[in-house]
Amino acid sequence: MERNFTGHVRMSLQILLVEDDSHLRRQLTEQLGHFEHEVQPVGDGQEALSLLGRRPFDAVVLDWMLPTMDGVTLLREMRGQGMTMPVLMLTALGQTLDKVEGLEAGADDYVVKPVDPLELNARLNALVRARRTTEQPSDTIAAGDIVISPSRLMVWRGGQPLALSQTEFRLLLALARDAGEVVTRPMLIERIWGQDFETTTNIVDAHIRQLRVKLLQHGDDPIATVRGMGYVLRA
């Protein structure tokens, strides 16, 4: 990493770009390259999944509409295999329900086309920076039958490992650190997405729903909703 003329740290990331439009794929590869990222462009979901199994990436930029395997299906497959790198979805679909579907499938953020390269770069840096700055104590955190290892970025429930996205992991970790106490939506947004994130968004609720689905695979729902306030992870 190095500092640019504004004094901010410039990150050089390994990025997998999954986009079937060849013109946009070349354009985004070139634009991200200007920010000193190394971009591996691919045109379909099956190829992307194969590549993800062979080499590590800091982040994935994933188009919604893809041949052979659409973006949401690919994302669910990635999370099901325990891949936790940040995923930013590209979509021409601007409706709220479409965005929520992507978030519930395990996306950490999204950008609606046409893509502004400055915004794309900023969002990718923020996602990766959030992951790299996640606290990594040597011990584990337990809340009921849930055990979290911040240093290993792993979660178990009832002794069974859970495959969570980066955002789901950080959300559960934030709740676990204050297990038994109400953690408000604004608190969760600030801890996970930063102070400047839009607080009226339903992004927290969308990720909580998906997190519950995964936690319910190995027991009762451990997250209680406190109406008008936030959530409590039962200790």
Automatic annotation (TrEMBL):
Annotated GO biological process: regulation of DNA-templated transcription
Cited SUPFAM superfamilies: C-terminal effector domain of the bipartite response regulators (SSF46894), CheY-like (SSF52172)
DNA-binding interval(s): 138-235
Ranges of residues in domain OmpR/PhoB-type: 138-235
InterPro entries per the UniProt record, alphabetical: CheY-like_superfamily (IPR011006), OmpR/PhoB-type_DNA-bd (IPR001867), Sig_transdc_resp-reg_C-effctor (IPR016032), Sig_transdc_resp-reg_receiver (IPR001789), WalR-like (IPR039420), WH-like_DNA-bd_sf (IPR036388)
GO molecular-function terms, A-Z: phosphorelay response regulator activity; transcription cis-regulatory region binding
CDD domains: trans_reg_C
SMART domains per UniProt: REC (SM00448), Trans_reg_C (SM00862)
Presence of keyword Kinase: no
Record's GO cellular component terms: cytosol; protein-DNA complex
Domain Response regulatory: 14-128
Keywords recorded for this protein, A-Z: DNA-binding, Phosphoprotein, Transcription, Transcription regulation, Two-component regulatory system
Pfam families: Response_reg (PF00072), Trans_reg_C (PF00486)
PANTHER family in UniProt: REGULATOR OF RPOS, RESPONSE REGULATOR PROTEIN CARR
Protein name: Two component transcriptional regulator
Organismal lineage: Bacteria, Pseudomonadati, Pseudomonadota, Alphaproteobacteria, Sphingomonadales
